[in-house]
Write a structure and sequence with these properties.
six-stranded mixed β-sheet; disordered C terminus; eight-stranded antiparallel β-sheet; 8 helices; 446 residues; globular; alpha+beta; single chain
C-alpha cells in the first residue's frame, strides 16, 4: 500500500470539528447546545422523553433543552453547568465533538480543559447585559489556548425586540477586545436559543442579519490545513523488537504522529540525543506506506540502530526543535492544592515524563483586565500565571504558538500523580512580548 503526497493533500481536509461553548451564568449556553442538538435531529427519542418528563416535574410547559447537556444532579437542581459535558453529533456535512464548559469563574479550569483541544469556541453573551467580565475572561482563555476561530453568539435577542443596534454594539465591543488579544477570526451571530432563531434555522425576526446560522457556520468554518506544512513531530511511545525467527532484526518505533507528515527516505533527528538517521520504512495498520501524517498511529523504522526509548522525539533533520531544561510557560492551575516556588513536580510532555522544580512564578494573570500581578509566590485553583520550570533532563519543546500538541505539558504531583497545572510554552498571547530569560538560582541539584 502506497500513499502519495496528492492523497495526503486530499485527506488533510478534516470532516471533524472540535468546538467548545462558554458563557456567563444564565446566558443560555446549555439551552443553545440543547437547541443545536434538538433542531439538528441529534437527540434520541428516549433522551427527549426524559427531558420532557424532567421539565414537566419542574412545572415547565415546554421541554427544557438545557437538560440535554446538564447531566449532573447538582447541575439540574441549581440550573447551572458545573462539569465539562462532551457531546458527539453529526450532520450530513460534518461530524462534531462539543465540549459544553461551565460559566462560573470558579470553574475556569474546566473551560481550559474543554477548550484545550477545540478548533472553535462559541462565546455566549446575553443581549440584555452585553459584554461582561466573564465574557472578557472567556475570550482571554480562548486567546490563551490559541483557539483559531471564535463565534460570538449574542443570545436572548427576543428579549430586546430583535434590535439590530443592540447586537451591533455588543459585536463591536467584543470584536475589538478579542482582536487585541490576538484572536485571528471572530464571527458574531444574533440568536435566540430558546426560540431557535439563527441556531439551526434562519430567523424570521431578524431580516437585517444576512450571515450564517450557528450550525451553518460550524459546518462550513475552515478547519483543514496542509499537514505537510506543519512542524513534523513523532513522540516515541513504544519500541517494537519481536526478535522472532520471522523478524529477527526488526526494530520499530511506535507511536502517534503529533503533527506534520513523515516520508520514507527522509533524514530525521532523534531528540534529546541529537543523533540522526533516515526513515527506511513506515508501517501503518500492518502494511507499509510511503507517507504518514498526524494523527495516525504508525511504526517508524530507521536506517541506524540508535538508542531510542519511550519519550524520545523524532523530527525532520532540518526542522527539529531546540532542547531545553529551562521551560518558561503560562500555566492554568487545576488542582485544589497550590503550586508554589521551589516545589518539586513531574513534567509530562507528550510521552516523556521528567523530574522538575518550579524555580519561579513571575506573575499571575488577572483575566478581568489582563493585568499581571507580579511575584504571587504561588498559584491556586483556577489561577493562570507565568512559571519558570527547571527540568532534570532536556526536553524537545515547541512553543505553544507553533504547536498546541508539542507545545503543551502537564505538571504532576510526584507523590500521588495528581495533575497540578496545564502548561503552554512560550508567550501567553499572540501579541505578548517575549518573556524574560530565567535566572540561574543556586542550591538546586539539577
Amino acid at each position: 500500500m502506497s500513499t502519495t503526497s496528492e492523497q495526503l493533500a486530499d485527506l488533510s481536509a478534516t470532516t471533524l470539528l472540535r468546538f467548545a461553548t462558554a458563557g456567563s451564568v444564565d446566558d443560555g449556553k446549555s439551552t443553545l447546545v440543547g437547541r443545536l442538538l434538538h433542531d439538528s435531529k441529534s437527540v434520541l427519542a428516549d433522551q427527549l422523553e426524559a427531558v420532557e418528563a424532567a421539565s414537566l416535574s419542574r412545572g415547565q410547559d415546554a421541554p427544557d433543552l438545557a437538560l440535554l447537556t446538564d447531566g449532573l444532579r447538582a447541575e439540574r437542581e441549581q440550573g447551572i453547568t458545573i462539569d465539562v459535558a462532551y457531546r458527539y453529533f453529526a450532520t450530513p456535512r460534518r461530524r462534531f465533538i462539543l465540549a459544553d464548559t461551565p460559566g462560573h469563574v470558579q470553574y475556569t479550569r474546566n473551560m481550559v480543559t474543554g477548550a484545550s483541544t477545540a478548533e472553535l469556541a462559541v462565546v455566549l453573551v446575553d443581549a440584555r447585559n452585553g459584554v461582561v467580565e466573564q465574557t472578557r475572561r472567556h475570550a482571554a482563555v480562548a486567546a490563551l489556548l490559541r483557539v483559531p476561530h471564535v463565534v460570538l453568539a449574542v443570545n436572548k435577542m427576543d428579549l430586546v425586540d430583535y434590535a439590530e443596534p443592540v447586537f451591533a454594539a455588543i459585536a463591536e465591543e467584543f470584536t475589538t477586545y478579542a482582536s487585541e488579544l490576538g484572536v485571528p477570526e471572530i464571527t458574531a451571530i444574533p440568536i435566540s436559543a430558546l426560540a431557535g432563531d439563527n441556531v439551526v434555522e434562519p430567523s424570521a425576526n431578524m431580516d437585517w442579519y444576512g450571515g450564517p446560522t450557528v450550525l451553518e457556520h460550524l459546518e462550513t468554518v475552515p478547519v483543514s490545513h496542509d499537514l505537510t506544512a506543519c512542524h513534523a513531530r513523532f513522540p516515541v511511545q513504544y519500541v517494537i523488537r519481536p526478535q522472532t525467527a520471522e523478524h529477527p532484526d526488526y526494530r520499530g518505533y511506535a507511536g502517534q504522529i503529533a503533527a506534520g507528515a513523515f516520508r520514507v527516505g527522509e533524514p530525521v533527528t532523534v531528540l534529546p540525543s541529537g543523533r540522526t538517521s533516515t526513515i527506511t520504512a513506515i508501517d501503518a495498520l500492518g502494511e507499509s506506506v510511503d507517507i504518514a501524517w498526524a494523527p495516525q498511529s504508525v511504526t517508524i523504522r530507521l536506517a541506524d540502530d540508535i538508542d531510542i526509548s519511550r519519550g524520545d522525539l523524532i523530527a525532520p533533520a532540518g526542522d527539529a526543535p531546540a532542547t531545553t531544561q529551562d521551560v518558561v510557560a503560562t500555566v492554568c492551575h487545576v488542582a485544589d492544592q497550590p503550586l508554589a516556588v521551589g516545589q518539586r513536580v513531574l513534567l509530562k510532555h507528550t510521552t516523556r515524563t521528567v523530574k522538575a522544580i518550579v524555580k519561579d512564578i513571575p506573575s499571575r494573570l488577572t483575566l478581568d483586565d489582563l493585568s499581571q500581578h507580579p511575584a504571587p509566590g504561588q498559584l491556586v485553583a483556577n489561577d493562570i500565571g507565568r512559571v519558570v520550570v527547571r527540568t532534570a533532563e532536556p526536553l524537545a519543546l515547541d512553543t505553544y504558538a507553533d504547536s498546541r500538541r508539542t507545545g503543551s505539558f502537564l505538571l504532576i504531583d510526584p507523590a500521588d500523580g495528581t495533575t497540578l497545572a496545564a502548561g503552554m510554552a512560550g508567550d501567553a498571547f499572540a501579541a505578548a512580548a517575549a518573556p524574560a530569560a530565567p535566572q540561574d538560582d543556586e542550591g538546586w541539584d539539577f
